[in-house]
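> Could you send the ROK family protein prediction when you get a chance?

Sure thing. Input:
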Amino acid sequence: MTTTDTDIAATRNITKTRNRQAIIRHLATHGNVTKRQLQLDLQLSLPTITGNIRALEHDGIIAPGPLTDSTGGRKSQSYRFNPSHRTAIGVTMHRNTLRLCAIDLQGRPIATLSRTLPYANTNAYYQRMGSAINDFAAETEKAHGPVLGVSFAIPGAISADGTVITFNDSTGATGVTIDTIAQSVRYPRQLIREAAAIAMTETLHDAAISDAICLYLNRRPSGALIMNGRLHRGPNLCDGAIEHMTLIPGGKPCHCGRRGCMAAYCSPENLPEDYESIPGFFSVLEQGETHHRERMNDWLDHVALAIANVRCVICADVVIGGEAALYLDHDNIADLQRRVTALSVFGTDHFTLRLSRSDENSGAIGAAMQFTDPYMDALCGWDTGPHPSSPAPTRTKIDTATMGV
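Output:
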């Protein structure tokens, strides 16, 4: 079998692409690097390095870094990955608030917007929201790179093809499609469960996360699953949604219409007595009131049972977030871990349980990562070969002090 000119050209193109990806990958994970260091680390010729650097700089993918000291006396030019040459926008919609967040390719917020906009399942609402998103995207593109797309983080559940909200009782948006929601948005768009979006940001805050069950104890509890440092969604886009796992057969009614769900028992709404708020409950609890301590113990027992049940299937670490987590201290977390350990079967008692580091922007940030992660995978060649166990080296840890603009 003879080698044709087409075969030779194809091989050269593959080699060229791999060299380009190797350089981008190295700069994205190592920071400022000189041509000489790239040559040594990647075992590529200097002309190959120089040609690729020139092309990547022209495309805005990399940028000059600081001059570095050289053994020869003359300082060398370093180069760095430019994470803002592409951006993405995440959106969260709640009863009264619309929140937008633009991120760069490292998952770092570069612009945020929070606006009071009461939700209504009407074209007028979606058009007003779309106008705000388009204006926000235009401003983002003026200051940074093109917007890859807009992703909406939705409380509740979405369809297997990611196009329809299949359950959302918090806003009444059940049955609404992405085409309706984003009818005025001029960019590619996607849906994601809000819990899954928040879980995506856990890897930004903690590069050590490999496998983790993320449990968000809001008034409507939810969950998500991280495997090998990445969100695991499964074919139905619902992996980790443990809130409707049956905890007590035939038990309390749940907002989903079934009985005995984890959500019915682990919601912090179970803690306050009549006419008492959740903050008020924890305020009285701190004073050592007996009945409040009993209610807290019952609630912790149910949360521990839910975690232990999930860990029988997925023996992973645990991250606790949501509204309830705002009131849990180190002693509460240690107590919860002891309860989970007491319920664990053989060989599943070695794990960490900690509080989430998520904040009010995390849902939007994680949603936007639906666009930046695949782009980075393709750019660095991670979609055609082994991916690092944690994506953290390609990103910068979120500094919450710089999140507002």
